[in-house]
Specification:
There is one protein chain. The chain has 399 residues and is of the alpha+beta class. The chain has eight helices and 21 strands. Helix 1 runs antiparallel to helix 2, helix 1 packs parallel to helix 7 and helix 3 packs parallel to helix 4. The longest helix has 17 residues.
Length: 399
């Protein structure tokens, strides 16, 4: 049984599949969604793919949207089908409005490159959105994009009608279960082929006149002791770049002005790894879009670096009459060395310190007393300062 219909007319089109799966969706439903997208892709196996023809892309979303297959990644159906099967769909709470805004930004960047290309977004969702969709869908359509909405199971039909292009009878498809997706495939294939062979929809100039919205949804990830990754939802309008300003904070919440600095990020980027930070320090990040003649409104977020890493697996490996051998797993990062502390037997409360090079991972402590328990501490020492101590207990042998 054929589950797709081959396109036979020459097309120039950019088609983005925007896929959201709710928290209840499992592995089987993910497989059926991927098979459905593959069926749509196979519709174009008889037409020119790539720069001079049809380009396909896939973006996945939940709380946050992300581009999984770019329009420019693959130029053959075989490559595209393999990429679709490699997609990792994970259930999440759905913010469809945010995903539509993401799609509008992605499609608007194509204006200058392929003005003759029809632009299509196929939304596939199995749940109700946790944010508003109407305005975001309108911006997407005003950008000359034809929007299809495929709803499965718990998708909200009223919401699908708000998202899809007019007439909604042509652009909204709904089924009660993932296993019925293959029934929709021939119908949607025909409609996609028709849309892809038509001239592109006109762009409404009201999009250009809309209020410019600055970067938003800032969040911090990839925490380490010397770097943090900052990611944001792109600003609207023709962004030339982003100005990222960072300000360290004291534990009291007071900003430290002498260590503040600024980074400029390219306009087509919406993430930056900020390096050379101090460990265990809170920072305030402010992001503003740079336009040809102005700076946009700012958005801010706080993030904190982790402490410098300690050694792991610190242990006593050999016990002698007057010696204890200790070993450990070195931490990652640029080390200056180690400091080991052991109590001084003849002076209670006093510690004996030994400084070691950074390229060792074991050490013999000597001149100890026989048949005595020792609590030994080790610190990893970095250019930024020492780590938290790690302790091990060992006992010298009796004679």
């Amino acid at each position: 049984m054929a589950i797709h219909e081959a396109c036979r007319t020459a097309e120039v089109a950019d088609i983005l599949f925007l896929v959201g799966q709710s928290q209840g969706a499992g592995r089987e439903s993910s497989r059926l969604v991927k098979d459905f997208i593959s069926s749509m892709a196979r519709s174009f196996e008889n037409v020119v793919m790539g720069k001079g023809g049809v380009r396909l892309a896939v973006a996945l979303y939940g709380e946050k949207p992300r581009m999984s297959v770019e329009l420019t990644d693959y130029v053959t159906i075989e490559e595209m089908l393999a990429a679709i099967q490699d997609l990792s769909l994970k259930g999440s709470s759905l913010k469809t409005g945010s995903a539509l805004a993401f799609a509008a930004h992605a499609m608007s960047r194509l204006d200058m490159l392929r003005e003759d290309a029809a632009k299509v977004v196929v939304l596939i969702t199995d749940g109700k959105s946790g944010d508003s969709v109407e305005d975001e869908a309108q911006v997407l359509q005003d950008g000359g994009v034809t929007v299809f909405a495929v709803g499965i199971k718990d998708a909200d039909r009223n919401e699908l009608n708000k998202i899809a292009s007019e007439p909604t009878a042509e652009h909204v498809l709904y089924i009660e279960d993932f296993h019925l997706l293959h029934n929709l495939a021939p119908k949607l294939s025909r409609r996609l082929c028709f849309t892809a062979s038509e001239p592109p929809q006109p762009i409404k100039q009201t999009v250009q006149a809309e209020k410019i919205i600055g970067p938003r949804d800032l969040h911090i990830s990839e925490h380490s002791h010397s770097s943090l990754r900052l990611t944001w939802m792109p600003a609207t309008g023709r962004v030339m770049g982003y100005r990222v300003h960072l300000h360290p904070m004291l534990p009291s919440g007071q900003l430290v002005s002498e260590d503040q600095r600024q980074i400029v990020v390219d306009g087509d980027k919406s993430t930056v790894l900020v390096t050379d930070l101090k460990p265990n320090t809170k920072y305030v990040f402010t992001v503003r879009a740079i336009y040809a003649d102005a700076l946009g409104e700012s958005a801010a977020v706080k993030g904190k670096t982790t402490p410098v890493p300690s050694v792991t697996n610190f242990r006593v490996t050999e016990e002698g009459l007057f010696t204890l051998k200790v070993a450990w797993t070195p931490p990652l990062g640029k080390l200056e060395g180690y400091k080991i502390y052991i109590p001084r037997a003849n002076r209670p409360g006093m510690m004996y310190e030994q400084v070691l090079r950074g390229d060792v991972s074991s050490h013999v402590l000597d001149n100890l007393q026989e048949d005595r328990e020792y609590s030994i501490s080790i610190y990893a020492v970095y250019p930024q300062g020492p780590s938290q101590p790690v302790a091990a207990v060992g006992r010298t042998c009796p004679s």
